[in-house]
From TrEMBL:
Residue intervals passing through the bilayer: 59-79, 100-118, 232-250
GO MF annotation list: transmembrane transporter activity
Protein name: Amino acid ABC transporter permease
Keyword tags: Amino-acid transport, Cell membrane, Membrane, Transmembrane, Transmembrane helix, Transport
Domain ABC transmembrane type-1: 55-250
Domain of life: Bacteria
UniProt entry tagged with the keyword Lyase: no
Species per Swiss-Prot/TrEMBL record: Glycomyces buryatensis
Protein family per UniProt: Belongs to the binding-protein-dependent transport system permease family. HisMQ subfamily.
SUPFAM superfamilies in UniProt: MetI-like
GO biological process, one term: amino acid transport
Length: 260
């Protein structure tokens, strides 16, 4: 057989084995018990419209944290590529610290550590402000590295041409480099937005109330109340309602960028 024929047979065998495994699992599964445990329509229907409140909170937590992360990440990225060693050292320490710490630990620090160190402190927006700061700090470290890579991907000839025309270093970065760098890193920024959406499930450690529940906490509470796993399925589907379009957008942007 030719190489192409061998590959075709290999794919056919792999596909047949996968189908056989799926068929075996389907035959062994207790579908009645699965339906009773995970797909109770009446329980799912009873979760609404309260589920939409949790869905909206998840969206808000993600947006606020992403905005905070972007605001912090841009100057940190500029410091990372600065010619001044102290700026580079501070930015590197910031990035490595918040990339190395678990987001859950950062949220604990923001929610409980800071109030202990500074009694009486109030976050703007309450729990929304805490989430923006906690998740935003972690997110900003990753976003800063993406932007730094984007800055370094801009051809140096453009920087040299701008300086030749009399532009200052600051104006060159703001007018020439940053706009191109941000366009380059749009796909990874979209991926970071997807990660933030899932990380919002950690917000429950801050002691959220009924009006500030996010999807994971809401689904877990509903599962405890109903003694059924259907709320977890509903919560998962609502997460997919957010993350699948974002993932598709990221793939489309990556494809568009590769074609340039």
């Amino acid at each position: 057989m030719t190489v192409r024929q061998r590959r075709r047979w290999a794919r056919t065998i792999q596909f047949a084995v996968a189908l056989a495994v799926l068929a075996l699992l389907a035959a062994l599964a207790d579908w009645g018990r699965i339906a009773d445990s995970f797909f109770q329509v009446d329980i799912a229907a009873a979760m609404f419209p309260a589920a939409w409140t949790a869905f909206g909170n998840t969206v808000l937590y993600t947006i606020f944290a992403f905005i905070f992360g972007m605001v912090v990440a841009v100057p940190v990225a500029l410091m990372r590529v600065s010619s001044f060693f102290l700026y580079r050292w501070v930015a590197t320490a910031y990035v490595e610290t918040f990339r190395g710490l678990p987001a859950l630990l950062v949220l604990f620090g923001v929610g409980f550590g800071v109030p202990l160190a500074f009694p009486g402190i109030q976050y703007p927006g309450g729990v929304y402000g805490q989430v923006a700061l906690g998740l935003g700090l972690t997110s900003s470290a990753y976003i800063a590295e993406s932007i730094r890579a984007g800055i370094q991907a801009v051809p140096k000839g453009q920087v040299e041409a701008a300086r030749t025309l009399g532009m200052s270093h600051t104006r060159t970065m703001i007018s020439i480099v940053l706009p191109q760098a941000l366009r380059i890193v749009i796909p990874p920024l979209t991926n970071e937005l997807v990660m933030l959406t899932k990380d919002s499930s950690l917000v429950s450690v801050l002691g959220v109330t009924a009006g500030t529940l996010e999807l994971t906490k809401f689904a877990r509470d509903e599962m405890s109340d109903t003694a059924n796993a259907t709320p977890l399925i509903v919560g998962g589907l609502l997460y997919l309602l957010l993350t699948v379009p974002l993932s598709a957008l990221a793939r489309r942007l990556e494809t568009k960028e590769d074609r340039k």
